[in-house]
Structure formats: C-alpha cells, structure tokens
Amino acid sequence: MDIAKIKALTEILCSSGLSAIEVDEGETRIRIERELSSKPVKSLPATQASAVAALPDLDEVADVPDKSVDHGNLIEIKSPLVGVYYASPSPDSDTFVSIGSMVKKGDVLCIIETMKLMNEIVAEQDGEIVDICLKNGDIAEFGQVLFKMV
Predict the structure, then answer these.
(1) Engineering a disulfide at 103: which of 38, 40, 123, 136 sits with its beta carbon 3.0 to 4.6 angstroms away?
(2) pLDDT value of residue 80
(3) Where are the alpha helices (DSSP H) in the chain?
(4) Can you list the alpha helix ranges (DSSP code H) found in 1-88?
C-alpha cells in the first residue's frame, strides 16, 4: 500500500467523523485511529456495513491533495496549571478554536478553571490549530499539551 492511499484513508477518516478505519489489501493490513473531539459530526450510516459501503474505492481517492503537517515546525501549547478544560466561554457558545482555525497572538484558545477561577489560555504567536488534545470538561494537568499548531 503506497503513501498516497494511506493519506487518502486519513482524509476519509477525518472527513467522515469515524474514529477508526481498517483496510486489508492482499497481505497488507492498515488500521488508522483518531480521538474524536467533542464537536458534533455529520450523521453516519446506521450500520457498519453501510458505512464501509459508503467509503469510496481507494483507487478513486488516491489523488487527495497533500494536507500533511510539518511536524518539525509543530508548536505545542501546554497547560500552565491544573484544572478543568473548557473549549468555549459557556455551554451554549461556539468553541474558541477548532482544528484548522487560524489564530493570532493573544487570541483566547480555551479556559482552564482552577479553584473557581477562570483562566484564559491565549496564543503566544500566530499560527494554525492542527490538533486539540482535550475534550470539553476534561481535567488538564500541569504541562499537558492542550493544542498543537503550526
């Protein structure tokens, strides 16, 4: 299985809202998993069989554009304190950021609640959010990676 097909599988996984995808091709077997964020995703087919049937043939999606991240330039934003992670200012509000959000230095990324104090975590530089490492309501540990950006 070549890298283009693996990238295509990753794109299918990200765009479909699935948490894992597994493909057998001859003697080669690949399984790709990801942690889903707390954001709602579009509805999926009711059965596993129809979900697999809904996926395009690998040969049809081999030309997916390269959206890879340069991990050499990856910036990790870590929690400066222990507390509850909140992705939005209130339960009925939109999240501060999502994957793909472009942020500027000083933009609020999340809130960490510690001892009833709401602490805004802000971007220390401009960039694009490529990963959100916690779900809303999770406990953030001191030094734990909250976001990854480039």
Answers:
(1) 123
(2) 94
(3) 3-16, 48-54
(4) 3-16, 48-54
